[in-house]
Automatic annotation (TrEMBL):
This is glycine--tRNA ligase. Transmembrane segments: none annotated. Belongs to the class-II aminoacyl-tRNA synthetase family. It is found in: Cytoplasm. GO terms for cellular component: cytoplasm. GO terms for molecular function: ATP binding; glycine-tRNA ligase activity. GO terms for biological process: glycyl-tRNA aminoacylation.
Length: 614
């Protein structure tokens, strides 16, 4: 059984994730997160939010999943959001053409190749249809747009699309969001939400799906002045697989610090380098194996239309490298596109330290002349004159000036433009920010963390499977068991479980089967600690209760009546007795007092204490 098959089997059996709608035959590319998976997903999202929103001081929003068509016309997704598709001439099955090449050759990134070259490779290597094994040679390789289309409201007059990335929900709202940031750069806006891509051939469970969760940060910066706090991460060592290394026979991964990567121009953008360093530490925190991790630079042919440079964080699972995060310097592409298509202002006002005096060319076109002369185009001609005066004042040196509107030239006498150059004092200027984007695929990160934490060993002569998840990410923090479901052990265990939940810990209670089987069940879902109530716990608790009752009876009756309850019933009173606490990875067990147990488990989970210290 391969690593991927083994993981999928465990995920379905233990409730991490499983195919959706299987009662109706299912639909490829859609997965349901079960109780364990939903908890793990939530924990990873919380860890992401803690690092990229709270600690970085950014904002977070939640935008709609459906957006109107003009948004994606502006963003370029309707024209350029494509994958390569090849259709079998025999059975009609469709396949991702670049994936077929990667699966049947030594080529790792066929996505960066032109369609014609992929078609030639399919013929050269005799690649067959995976469904019916008919040769795919000479079958055309076409582009397939991945957008899910829908209609907003009744009829088809208002087309919309399910968003293929959460980013556009941030870019579209930039004018409003910049106001919340008091128009002060730099500022970041984050979002965790669903995205949708109509994949040609979903595969590998959570790796290639049609609905998935993204955690994205759009960091808006002044490209002339804003610099990242690189010193905070400059010594972090990055495993880099640069584009130049990928294109040579003997090229390979290099280990460089963030500072070295910037100084050697391996990573062009200091902002991207900063987030590579921040993210390397975050991946380690959530349980990604650094021996199975790298940053790979995009080749020119695979780089997104908006990115001047892009790096992927990749993890190795089952012998394949899968992208889990993309880091892109998007420049001002997105804000420029939305400004052009919407007519709204996608800039911020940058205040100068001191006012400056400049010569400013302006026009005040005579509309009584432009109107009769150019009719319905008069307004557009006036706008074109204003733009030309700002861009090239020398064009007004002659008696006439020519502007182009909708591909047609219009000539205007300069004296009808009221052109002038005046000395003005300016307090600032409007600038369009650039964008740095780390974009995380939450499902792929979950898949990676589960694969990298999957461990087997031998305990008491039996093979054991466990997930070595960091306690912070584990779906459940502690399992609570009565050794046997009798003699009051179940009651005490239930009380302890309730107390731990009240303290904010994630708790599961299990009284079914042998204690060893219960430990194994929790090991398989990654629960880091188990608490067992046994006869010794009862004896300790009973002795303490008798002493408490004796002390209580010696007090005046009015004292007991005034409290309304006995000390045993008061949840604020310390509980005597001990329980057995077991640590998952080593299976080591220690006897710990019930009093203060929640605090101890919390400290173990956060790393403030270790099990050896107890």
């Amino acid at each position: 059984m391969s690593e991927g098959e083994r993981l999928t089997e465990l995920a379905k059996r233990r409730g991490f994730y499983f195919p959706s709608s299987s009662a109706y035959g299912g639909a490829a590319g859609f997965w349901t997160y079960g109780p364990q998976g939903a908890a793990l997903k939530s924990n990873i999202e919380d860890a992401w939010r803690d690092r990229y929103v709270v600690k970085e001081g950014h904002q977070e929003i939640s935008a709609p999943d459906v957006m109107p068509e003009p948004v994606f016309e502006a963003s370029g997704h309707l024209d350029g959001f494509d994958d390569m598709i090849v259709e079998c001439g025999e059975c009609g099955a469709t396949h991702r053409a670049d994936h077929l090449v990667e699966d049947n050759t030594d080529i790792e990134e066929a996505e960066s190749l032109p369609n014609e070259e992929v078609m030639d490779l399919i013929a050269e290597h005799g690649i067959e249809c995976p469904s019916c094994h008919t040769s795919l040679a000479d079958q055309p390789v076409d582009n397939f747009n991945l957008m899910f289309e829908t209609n907003i409201g009744p009829g088809s007059s208002s087309p919309g699309y399910l968003r293929p990335e959460t980013a556009q929900g941030i870019f579209v709202e930039f004018p409003q969001l910049s106001e919340y940031a008091r128009n002060q750069l730099p500022f970041g806006v984050a979002q965790i939400g669903k995205a949708y891509r109509n994949e040609i051939s979903p595969r590998k469970s959570l790796v290639r799906v049609r609905e998935f969760t993204q955690a994205e940060l759009e960091h808006f910066v002044d490209p002339e002045e804003d610099e990242p706090p690189l010193a905070e991460v400059e010594d972090v060592v990055l495993p880099l697989y640069a584009a130049a290394e990928q294109q040579t026979d003997d090229g390979g991964q290099r280990e460089l610090t963030v500072r070295e990567a910037v100084d050697e121009d391996i990573v062009e953008s200091e902002w991207v380098a900063y987030y590579l360093g921040v993210s390397k530490e975050w991946y380690e925190r959530i349980g990604v194996d650094m021996d199975r991790f790298r940053y790979r630079q995009h080749l020119a042919g695979e780089r997104a239309h908006y990115a001047s440079d892009c790096w992927d964080a990749e993890s190795e699972v089952d012998g394949d490298w899968i992208e889990i995060t993309g880091f892109a310097y998007r420049g001002d592409y997105d804000l420029s596109k939305h400004a052009k298509h919407s007519g709204e202002d996608y800039t911020v006002f940058k205040q100068y330290d001191e006012p400056i005096t400049v010569d400013r060319a302006t026009v005040d076109p005579d509309m009584s002349y432009l109107g009769p002369e150019f009719g319905g185009s008069a307004g557009a001609v006036a706008d074109a004159l204003e733009a030309l005066a700002e861009r090239n004042p020398d064009a007004f040196d002659d008696d006439e000036v020519t502007v182009e509107v909708d591909g047609k030239s219009h000539t205007v006498p300069v004296d009808k433009t009221n052109f002038s150059v005046d000395e003005v004092t300016e307090n600032g200027e409007h600038i369009r920010p650039h964008v740095v984007e780390p974009s995380f695929g939450v499902g792929r990160i979950i898949y990676t963390v589960l694969a990298h934490s999957y461990e087997t060993d031998e305990v008491d002569g039996e093979e054991r499977t466990y997930l070595g998840l960091p306690p912070e990410q584990a779906p459940t923090t502690v399992g609570v068991f009565p050794l046997m479901d009798k003699d009051g052990m179940d009651d005490l265990a239930t009380d302890i479980a309730d107390d731990l939940r009240a303290a904010g810990l994630s708790v599961t209670y299990d009284d079914s089967g042998a204690i060893g089987r219960r430990y194994r069940r929790q090991d398989e879902v990654g629960t880091p600690y188990c608490v067992t109530v046994d006869y010794e716990s009862l004896e300790d608790d009973s002795e303490a209760q008798r002493a408490s009752d004796s002390a209580s009876s010696a007090e005046p009756r009015s004292a007991n009546r005034s409290s309304g309850q006995s000390p045993r019933e008061d949840g604020d009173e310390p509980r005597a007795g001990t329980v057995t606490v077991r640590e998952r990875d080593t299976t080591e067990q220690k006897r710990l007092p019930i009093d203060g147990l929640a605090e101890t488990l919390e400290q173990l989970s956060t790393g403030d204490r270790t099990f050896d210290d107890l």
